[in-house]
Amino acid sequence: MSLQKELLKRRTFGIISHPDAGKTTLTEKLLLFGGAIQEAGAVKNNKIKKGATSDFMEIERQRGISVATSVLAFYYKDKKINILDTPGHKDFAEDTFRTLTAVDSVIVVIDVAKGVEEQTEKLVEVCRMRQIPMIVFINKLDREGKDAFDLLDEVEQKLGLHVSLMSFPIGMGYDFKGIYNIWEKNINLFSGDPKKNIEDTIAFDNIDSPELEKIIGARQAGLLRDNLELIDGVYPSFDRQAYLNGTQQPVFFGSALNNFGVRELLDCFIEIAPSPRPKKAEERLVEPSESQMTGFVFKIHANMDPKHRDRLAFIKIVSGTFERNKPYLHVRQDKKMKFSSPNAFFAEKKEIIDISYPGDIVGIHDTGNFKIGDTLTENEVLHYKGIPSFSPEHFRYINNADPLKSKQLFKGIDQLMDEGVAQLFTLELNGRKVIGTVGALQYEVIQYRLQHEYGASCTYEPFPVYKACWVEATDPKNPEFKEFLRIKQKFMAKDKKNQLVFLADSAFSLQMTIEKYPSVKLHFTSEWDE
Ligand code: G4P
Q1: 26 C-alpha to ligand 1 centroid (Å)
Q2: Which atom of ligand 1 is nearest to the CA of 143?
Q3: Could you tell me the domains of the chain?
Q4: CB 456 within 8 A of CB 402
Q5: How many other CB atoms are found less than 10 A from the CB of residue 56?
Q6: Residues lining ligand 1, CB < 6 A?
Q7: At what angle do helices 118-129 and 148-159 cross, to 10 degrees?
């Protein structure tokens, strides 16, 4: 089949939410529809339990599971759907940010009772900045929750979105009758039986018909008509181009647990969601339909077995066709590589594939050649953009606890940083190494993995930093820049790519620095647009 046909079939997306909003449940129901799994509960284990904040054995166990569920692919109607798993645990937010560079769209899950929560805000902000098309799924309608219009206001205000309604609930919680599907013009009646895959759907294009009273009762019928009139007056109708540009977000209501509203979501998703999108490289914009293969590494997963220190590098194919045993250029290392056993991922298994298309994820066994952000091409020198590091939230000195094992320690740190487990900063003044993480949990993971995979041991020491700010290289002769470097010497470091970083020790000192040295440009991510 032609490349063009294959890529039009593909939908590669991620589901994002605050923990407990229902991401895992929704994923599972989508897989059930695709026939990719047979029973509920199959995806359930891929979750870091709430109480597990300091149990790294649990983390290790989870790491094993999450390899298998990193990419969940299935066919639905004639589409190939790739769901990229994003960890919900906030300590792994960085991992989620990186995965978002490989998706073509996202579904945002919101709990109807809790509304917009902290983690959702952060993740949606990243998607908004990147103009990623988003669909919102408001979940748990079988429970008592916020008023639908209040919740939509909250979504618009807190998340900065512009919604368009694809469906609207009829009642809620105890009184939940079903959903009116504005997109398909039908009513879906709620039976409350989670075992039923497809609910009773009644086509209903004339909302004024007296039949409505018979189905949902006079009170709900009147309310639904009023609500639809209000929606018509207040919210814009669906505009696919605006959705694709990231300026409008369609909203669905449902209950993932009850498998309610999920088919509607999926049916609409495959119609409107984008097939693989063009991607910016430093050199140029690459179209997925170009015949030459290009792709980039967005995730690296270490093998859990310490005897096999190989890792799995996840590559998103951006353009062309990826073929087994064909030589590709590893741009950063400037060398050609062939892959004899690339993996494709399906819901419950991975298997060796001969060919992959844009939108697909290929897993490659790696012995240390790849870093997150690396680009593969046929020959062209290209560097894909858009895998920035964000400022970590925790910082600690890392010390070698066993002087005989310093080589192992450095190798271990180096490889864990390539995987993106945490960020390493080297202080300019004395060369001491500082590890920055998004969550405190990673320190235990690092210590545990250094010990078990590299035979090295480390200790930590507190290092009070408020934020890491990347310093834009300005004219080194600029007196203000020179003065900044001199005065702030103690707080200057280099990141792993040798970029200069200012480690501000408090919000106050950061503010003072910005005011005192206005010509010094500080950035809160490691990549920025000039
Ligand atoms: P997450 O991946 O976003 O963290 O959420 P997950 O799907 O695990 O769902 C969190 C909890 O919310 C689960 O309950 C799940 O059963 C429940 N849930 C998901 N969708 C719905 C829904 O539509 N309605 C209702 N009422 N509940 C829903 P739990 O008790 O934490 O876990 P479990 O004991 O059910 O496994």
Answers
A1: 9
A2: 26
A3: 2-174+237-272 (3.40.50.300), 279-377 (3.40.50.300), 394-523 (3.30.70.3280)
A4: yes
A5: 20
A6: 17, 19-25, 47, 88, 139-140, 142-143, 255-258
A7: 60
Nearest CA to ligand 1 atom 16: 257
Q: How far apart are CA 469 and CA 503, in angstroms?
A: 6
Maximal C-alpha separation, the chain: 84
Give 144 Cα–ligand 1 centroid separation in angstroms: 15
pLDDT of res. 306: 56
Q: What is the predicted pLDDT for the residue at 468?
A: 94
What residue owns the CA closest to ligand 1's atom 4? 20
CB 265 within 8 A of CB 251: no
Amino acid at 238: F
Nearest-atom index, ligand 1, CA of 255: 23
| CA pair distance 343, 299, nearest whole angstrom | 14
Instruction: Please give the distance, rounded to the nearest whole angstrom, from the Cα atom of residue 100 to the centre of ligand 1.
Output: 23
The residue contributing the CA closest to ligand 1 atom 26 is 140
Selection from 156, 3, 144, 10 nearest residue 81 by Cα: 10
> Which parts of the chain sit beneath pLDDT 70?
1, 36-69, 88-92, 192-201, 203, 303-309, 347-348, 386-387, 528-530
* pTM assigned to the model: 0.84
Mean pLDDT across the chain, nearest whole number? 86
